[in-house]
Each structure stands twice: as structure tokens, then as C-alpha cells.
Amino acid sequence: MTAATANTDSLSWYEASARQRIDALVDPGSFVEFIGPEQREMSPHLAIFDLPEQFDDGIVIGRGRLDSSPVFVAAQEGRFMGGAFGEVHGAKLTGLLRAARTLRQDVLILFDTGGVRLQEANAGELAIAEIMRAIVEARRAGVNVIGVIGGRAGCYGGGSLIAGTCSRLIVSEQGRISVSGPEVIETNKGIEEFDSRDRALVWRTMGGKHRYLIGGADAFVDDEAQAVRQAAIDALEVTRGYGVANLEAEQSRLERRLQRFGAARDAVDVWQALGIDKPTDIPALPTDAFLAAANNRENADDAR
Amino acid sequence: METLSFRLSASTRAGGTRMQAIVGVVASGNLEVLLERAAPADSCMIDITTAAHGFGAVWEAVVRDFVDRRPAGGLRISINDGGARPDTVALRLAQGVRKIEEPER
């Protein structure tokens, strides 16, 4: 199958379900699911809390083709329990990553998660650690692990830590990446520190544009499945190594970044320090104008 | 959680050749419907797990109406419900039989 046969229908990544995202991302008809819903591998914990289960435990994994090249794909369903990681949900992703390492196959992770499920917190936290290790081991073996962030739930908590270990991150304006979510910060530090209901503040602090500008993501795309697909094809063109040199380079960059922007009180101050002409215009800029304005952005070195 | 089970006779066999289809997600006011070709051609089995207790009579009315109106013969339908309204349930069931009819690629 070639790119010419790709699904060309317009689809908002933000609005789409996990299964719709996979269908729009890979070459039509190429996706084969692993441990599908018919196997009913569900959470062993939710019933204890009398909570509804989902047949795929909120994550779809499998293999497909992207512009004819074989890839593994995992997609979180952000509407089921906020896309949060539980024992089975996490184990499915860990298994996919270990298979990717063994088979030398690139992986796309479509994040849509608030972090770890509180009802299975220990299992979920362990899953986060296992997934991060599996990504590092796969990358050490020469496998690319590409993250896509543009869903309703964003990419928070343990999900953001996993994203940090990926080779490349593709983000849309709607995507948000942060360890602590807006409500968590407000609860712990007070509304003067962070007003979680101030959507403009949330997006300019954690949103796709800011993350792209400070090197927290590597590609910025429209909220459009075909734009994500093209960015994923581009991201997989180069195999990116991973070793101590990457980490040392990134550590130095982060130290410089802290010196450069550490005193900033707001994202707009950071954008000003980046040398952006009219920093207050950034949130309203359409993608093309934004990418042009982002010319001097911080650039992550395959780690972040 | 409450579980409900219905085994209904169905006059029309579900179309298409796909072995299974899934629609919807488990969220507040929403549900997922998994359809599998795993019942005798003249019957439809529906198993429901729901977070909303005490609505057995409403479920029965919705699934009977579904089997009367749609080609559901031969299907085993499994539902995880997050408290969806009857109209949402009817919509998902209709989407489900439509999806299992889709030609395979």
C-alpha cells in the first residue's frame, strides 16, 4: 500500500477516539490488533471498586504499515478513565515495546492520559517504570519510539515521564504535556500560583506551542490526523541513536535553559527572551505563522 | 455493577462477514458495544454490565426494539455501560450492526 491510498478524510485528532486515530494514521486496512477487545483482558482492580471496565482496558495496541513501512502502534483512549495507566493497560504497552526491541520495529505511541489510575496506583506506577525502561532498551537497540500528543486528556503524570524518554514527540496546539496537571498544582500551591480554570494560562504553560518553543516537543502540527501521519512518516525517516552522549548534551541544554529562562514568571516572558517579535501574539497565530515565529526555538536533542 | 442477560430470537441474520466489531467507549453517559458472530443465526445474545442499577426493564425494552428493527441474528453482543441514556444505547447498537456489516479490507 502506498501513501496515495491513505485515508484523506479530515479528522480532528483531539476529537477522535483511539481506534479512529489508528485508522487515520496507518495505511488503510493495514492495522492488526494485539490482545483485542474480544479477549477481554480487563483490569483486575476496577471491579473491587465497583467501577465499569473496558474490554481493551483503555489502550489499543497492534501492528500496521506507515507509508508502507511496518510499525507498531499503541493508542490510549482518553475518554476511558482519563486514559490513565493501570496494570493491564500498562502491560500491553510494555509488551509491545519489548516486542519492538526484539523485532527491531519502530513504535508510535498515541498518548492521551492523565497519568496513573488512582484505583490501581501501585500497579500503574510500576507500569510507568517498566514502560520507560522498555523504551530506553528499545532505543538502545536502534528502534525509534515516536510519541504523539494532541488528545483531550493531554499527557500528564507518568505519561509525561514516558513521553520524555521517546525519540521524538509530535504535538498539536491542543496537546498538553506536564508532570503535574493544572488542578494538582492549584490544590498543592494555591490559586495564586496556578488558576486551573484559566484556560489561556493552562495552554500557554503546558500547551503544544509552548512545549515546542522550549524544546519539550520536536514537531508541531495542526489538529488533523493527516498532519500527524505526515509528521510521523518524517520522524521515522532517521534512526536516532540513544546513549550517554545524548543525555549529557540534553543535560547541558537544560542547564542553559534554566539560566536563560529561570527568572521568567510567565510563558510570555520566555517567548520574549527567545527573541520572538510579538510574544503576546503567539497563542493566536495560525500554524504557518507560528512555525515561522518559532525559528529560534529551543531544540531538544532526542531527549528532554 | 449490575449484570443483565438477554437471549432473543432474531428474524434477520446480521449482514457482512466480519467476525467482530466494537463501537463506543466506557465513559460517563456512554457505553461500549462489542459484537461477535458467536450465536445461532436465528438468535441474538446480549450481556450487559452497567454502573446504573435498577434499569432492567428499560434495557429489555431497548434491546427488544433493537432486535426487532435491525439484522442482529447470529450476534453475541457484550456491553460495558457507564450510565448511558436509552437513546445513546440504541444509537450504539445501531452503529454496531452497521460496523460488522462493513466490507473487510
From TrEMBL, chain A:
<dbReference type="InterPro" id="IPR029045">
    <property type="entry name" value="ClpP/crotonase-like_dom_sf"/>
</dbReference>
<keyword id="KW-0808">Transferase</keyword>
<dbReference type="GO" id="GO:0003989">
    <property type="term" value="F:acetyl-CoA carboxylase activity"/>
</dbReference>
<dbReference type="InterPro" id="IPR017556">
    <property type="entry name" value="Malonate_beta"/>
</dbReference>
<dbReference type="InterPro" id="IPR011762">
    <property type="entry name" value="COA_CT_N"/>
</dbReference>
<feature type="domain" description="CoA carboxyltransferase N-terminal">
    <location>
        <begin position="1"/>
        <end position="244"/>
    </location>
</feature>
<dbReference type="GO" id="GO:0009317">
    <property type="term" value="C:acetyl-CoA carboxylase complex"/>
</dbReference>
<dbReference type="InterPro" id="IPR034733">
    <property type="entry name" value="AcCoA_carboxyl_beta"/>
</dbReference>
<dbReference type="Pfam" id="PF01039">
    <property type="entry name" value="Carboxyl_trans"/>
</dbReference>
<dbReference type="GO" id="GO:2001295">
    <property type="term" value="P:malonyl-CoA biosynthetic process"/>
</dbReference>
<dbReference type="InterPro" id="IPR000438">
    <property type="entry name" value="Acetyl_CoA_COase_Trfase_b_su"/>
</dbReference>
<dbReference type="GO" id="GO:0016740">
    <property type="term" value="F:transferase activity"/>
</dbReference>
<protein>
    <submittedName>
        <fullName>Malonate decarboxylase beta subunit</fullName>
    </submittedName>
</protein>
<dbReference type="GO" id="GO:0005975">
    <property type="term" value="P:carbohydrate metabolic process"/>
</dbReference>
<dbReference type="GO" id="GO:0016831">
    <property type="term" value="F:carboxy-lyase activity"/>
</dbReference>
<dbReference type="GO" id="GO:0006633">
    <property type="term" value="P:fatty acid biosynthetic process"/>
</dbReference>
UniProtKB/TrEMBL annotation, chain B:
<dbReference type="InterPro" id="IPR023439">
    <property type="entry name" value="Mal_deCO2ase/Cit_lyase_ACP"/>
</dbReference>
<protein>
    <recommendedName>
        <fullName>Malonate decarboxylase acyl carrier protein</fullName>
    </recommendedName>
</protein>
<keyword id="KW-0963">Cytoplasm</keyword>
<keyword id="KW-0597">Phosphoprotein</keyword>
<dbReference type="Pfam" id="PF06857">
    <property type="entry name" value="ACP"/>
</dbReference>
<dbReference type="GO" id="GO:0005737">
    <property type="term" value="C:cytoplasm"/>
</dbReference>
<comment type="function">
    <text>Subunit of malonate decarboxylase, it is an acyl carrier protein to which acetyl and malonyl thioester residues are bound via a 2'-(5''-phosphoribosyl)-3'-dephospho-CoA prosthetic group and turn over during the catalytic mechanism.</text>
</comment>
<feature type="modified residue" description="O-(phosphoribosyl dephospho-coenzyme A)serine">
    <location>
        <position position="28"/>
    </location>
</feature>
<dbReference type="InterPro" id="IPR009662">
    <property type="entry name" value="Malonate_deCO2ase_dsu"/>
</dbReference>
<dbReference type="GO" id="GO:0000036">
    <property type="term" value="F:acyl carrier activity"/>
</dbReference>
<comment type="similarity">
    <text>Belongs to the MdcC family.</text>
</comment>
